[in-house]
Amino acid sequence: MPLATAAFAALVDRDRPSPAFWLCSGLGAALVVGFALSRGGGALQPGDALLFGAVACGAFGYTWSAQLSRRLSPPEVISWIVVLALPASLPLSFDWRPADLGAVAPLAWASLAYVGAMAMYFGYFAWNAGLALGGVARVSQTQLLQPFLTFAIAAALLGERIDAETAICALTVVALVLASRRAGVGAAQTATEQA
């Protein structure tokens, strides 16, 4: 997703990442994908085509959200996205609902509400603002850290063990993200420059 977002930023938002940025970003993405493949059976599956489509749609959406967040507030941007998605999301939610709503555990409902409100709504206030202010290509690279932060939280909360391969891969990705953030990126006009 970070590499695809940087590519859309270069195409749509007119970010101009340097060759050093592309090298760091490409190596970081290759490490994360290689790590996922090594842990997930080592081969792509037919369903992965849907995943690649979701990555392209998400990267495009991040880029446009950042552009819009330079004109509107980030809460307005994600609120309009939710409203515009309702004609598709409401019928699909109704069609794919559980057969017996009462059989769904209260904790599952609470988890769904938390993910919907916090991660998929309020979280985008900060994410859209960060992309708009810091530059889409540069800020998007922080997502490379997400799988490893998830492992660290799982280790802390659930006592899961982090092996040496995971730790080395995570440290390498952190170094590449830091290097990509320092690499030159000629950015589209930021929100502060427009003001």
What can be said about the biggest beta sheet? Answer: 2 strands, antiparallel
Number of domains: 1
Kindly, what is the distance between the CA atoms of the first and last residues, rounded to a whole number of angstroms? 30 Å
In one word, what is the shape? Answer: globular
Percent helix range? over 70%
Number of strands: 2
Strand content: under 5%
Number of contiguous helices: 9
By secondary-structure content and strand pairing, the structural class works out as mainly alpha
Note the run of SSEs as H and E. HEHHHHHHHEH
Strand order of the largest sheet: 1-2
What is the mean pLDDT?
87
Unreliable stretches (pLDDT < 50, length at least 5) are 189-195
Structural features, described:
A two-stranded antiparallel sheet has the order 1-2. It is built from nine helices and two strands. It has 195 residues and is an all-alpha fold. It has one domain (2-90, 111-190). α3 runs antiparallel to α4 (74-95). The two termini are 30 Å apart. The protein has helices spanning 2-11, 19-39, 48-69, 74-95, 106-134, 136-140, 146-158, 164-182, 191-194; strands spanning 16-17, 185-186.
Q: What's the arrangement of secondary structure elements?
A:
Blueprint (H helix, E strand, L loop, with lengths): L1 H10 L4 E2 L1 H21 L8 H22 L4 H22 L10 H29 L1 H5 L5 H13 L5 H19 L2 E2 L4 H4 L1
Antiparallel strand pairs: 1-2
Helix pairs in contact: 1-3, 2-8, 3-4, 3-5, 4-5
Keywords:
195 residues; mainly alpha; two-stranded antiparallel ribbon; 9 helices; 2 strands; 74% helix; disordered C terminus
